Amino acid sequence: METLKSYVQEHKNRFINELIELLKIPSVSADTAYHQHIITTANAVKASLEKAGCDFVEICETPGNPIVYGEKTIDPTLPTVLVYGHYDVQPADPIELWTSPPFEPVIKKTEIHPEGAIFARGSCDDKGQMYMHVKALEYMIQSNTLPCNVKFMIEGEEEIGSNSLAWFVERNQEKLKNDVILISDTGMISNQQPSITTGLRGLSYVEVEVTGPNRDLHSGLYGGAVANPINVLSKMIASLHDENNHVTIPGFYDKVEELSVEERAEMAKAPFNLENYKKSLDLNDIYGEKGYVTNERNSIRPTLDVNGIWGGYTGEGAKTVIASQAFAKISMRLVPNQDWEEITELFTQHFINIAPAGVKVKVKPHHGGQGYVTPTDSIGYKAANKAYTETFGVPAIPVRSGGSIPIVALFEKELKSKTILMGFGLDSDAIHSPNEHFGIFNYLKGIETIPLFYKYFVEMSK
Amino acid sequence: METLKSYVQEHKNRFINELIELLKIPSVSADTAYHQHIITTANAVKASLEKAGCDFVEICETPGNPIVYGEKTIDPTLPTVLVYGHYDVQPADPIELWTSPPFEPVIKKTEIHPEGAIFARGSCDDKGQMYMHVKALEYMIQSNTLPCNVKFMIEGEEEIGSNSLAWFVERNQEKLKNDVILISDTGMISNQQPSITTGLRGLSYVEVEVTGPNRDLHSGLYGGAVANPINVLSKMIASLHDENNHVTIPGFYDKVEELSVEERAEMAKAPFNLENYKKSLDLNDIYGEKGYVTNERNSIRPTLDVNGIWGGYTGEGAKTVIASQAFAKISMRLVPNQDWEEITELFTQHFINIAPAGVKVKVKPHHGGQGYVTPTDSIGYKAANKAYTETFGVPAIPVRSGGSIPIVALFEKELKSKTILMGFGLDSDAIHSPNEHFGIFNYLKGIETIPLFYKYFVEMSK
């Protein structure tokens, strides 16, 4: 343990600089214009795994972005840990809100990160958290303490639905065979209170298009006489929630699991301060589904949010036009038992049904994934908890997250093994937002904690 | 009359080429990036007035875009006609929907314009219609038939609210003194059936901003727990109309004049084919305020339309984000007696009132103008009707238009004279839309008809 701590201290500057180099490559998967950077990043990840000590690393071509696969086998009779992460990142826009360029990483101190945090797109989600595992392997190889076999699968489409990963996993079940899957792509409660994510929400993401007249029209000559696609789209979106902020799509809640009073009471124990929450977001009030509190609304309840909307004249000044078309990107976060393909179909049918005469409506499914819940009595969970307890001095709290990692459900289905979500980020790290950052403390703590997971997992597996 | 016809025939190619040169200058007033082209266009208009025979022309500086003023005085005791027009144009976007570049005019034949039409932004609204008056003056000077004095006032801010024109008119009442104001910035029913616009709608144009959290958020971690500005904006916009498509803003209809059954019966006489109307716009149905037909909805009734909306991620692919802000440009067409500043205030108050907790709302008034109705028994109206009757072979029909020319009400207030709206465009000319065009037939017919207005107006004024 001491050697681990001292190794991290001794090499921390190099660990930070290596991550900074990786963060400089704008591997945005949502925009094909960045494709070359995707390839460059995959190659950089491959090189880092070879350097860390994998004895076999390859870049696997897929129908989409390549997947980096690596492995280190010390004894086939020992357990195997499969590490999953992703090297692609969210788009950086709105770029003008970044206080420093998203792909020119800088270290700045913040109230929550007095030791400094690395500001860059992908610093936390997920390049930084993925790279902790590479450095943890480096340590275990260098110190001769790797207690089992390890495999790495680092993909480049997590932010756009992991379609190629599903394709890859289905075709490589033998190659990916493992005893536990380890992922750091979630957060923890605070730097003083670690937590392990035991639940994830599913996702259904669609794009809708409302078409009225066959061309943009003069709002004076036609205003009031034809359906305005923007007004109609607004009306349709508004109708997707009722006055209690329940989603109105027929059948949407049919398979939603209702938690017991006991389970909700257990959840309520997680430290949460509503005033600080509102203050951190400059909100005069919260908002959400009636009958549930904030920590339930963003974890155990399904939601529907518009992620983008556009139509008509959006330039400087005024244009008196009725647009021919209006568009929106809409996503639904789903909870365990809701099937994302079924929900996508329910949404599509409903959205087409509520379209008024005078417009045509198209719904284009983007991607989706299932929700997931993991038990807290598995060896993997216990090993992770023991590792956190040792490095943070307090046990981890099990938490249901509102985020989605669609492939976790896929792994259980295809690879028949459980996933342990060891997250080291914080909600305040602004992932998917301008000024995303990852604390130096969190980065190094992760590198320290991961080898302990290997140690205890192998011990408990005996 | 014959000499007029033959003069137009003889010089028509030059008339067309001169207009095409003017249309090549992208004088978009809504976007300051085009300011230099605004200046270039003003200078071109000035030169054309001097060439046509004005004995005094000047470019008048204003707080905004310059106004071109010109005059030809033959005898101070004779009546004076003031011609108004505008040299600025609407933005061309969506640029990708133009079949030829908006500022590279080309002549193409269409079903309605077998003799060809000039396709270019501003060809009809209003460079083409304004330029008819310049060429009509040229004819009257050349043929020595100008029967009275004439003044020209051509502005560069009509498409953004004519703010500087109001400023200019208030300060130059003596200079602009006239007996009748002549404007060609409206349309007529068809090339076989001329019409004179006797009513215009007023306008109130605002931009709204809804702000939720202080930064873009991850829709998984925050989805369902905070107000989503796009969902909220959609809800607020949807609530601005009730189930009968009446506008719900308190007081909105208080001053609206209700037309008598007789007046509505008179309006219903104007030729209109609903099937052709729907077909021309590819609409499976029309849409609008309950209790009124299409030709009433777009003329005698006030309306509210969203002209543009934007917020969140609108790029390629998917981004699971909750935007910090959402925006919309909203305009209301008003009818006589509705005061645009009062309506703007009513909208602003209402929109702020309906904002739910969890968001902040801002309303920024853009511009506006009053509606207008002109009598059909004035000398000006009669002279115009006689001129149309002579060139088209049938009398013109009085029509209430849905469009707005805010300055018409201003002229009556400041200059105490009536405006005659002699329009030669067609609704199908796609003004404010991609592929705006103006028929060669209409352009030349206008040049033929205008001198007859002067003739009869002076005769009847004796």
Automatic annotation (TrEMBL), chains A, B:
Transmembrane segments: none annotated. Pfam families: M20_dimer, Peptidase_M20. It comes from the Bacteria. One of its GO terms (molecular function) is peptidase activity. Keywords: Hydrolase, Metal-binding, Protease. Residues 199-357 form the Peptidase M20 dimerisation domain. GO terms for biological process: proteolysis. This is Dipeptidase. It comes from Flavobacterium alvei. The lineage of its organism: Bacteria, Pseudomonadati, Bacteroidota, Flavobacteriia, Flavobacteriales.
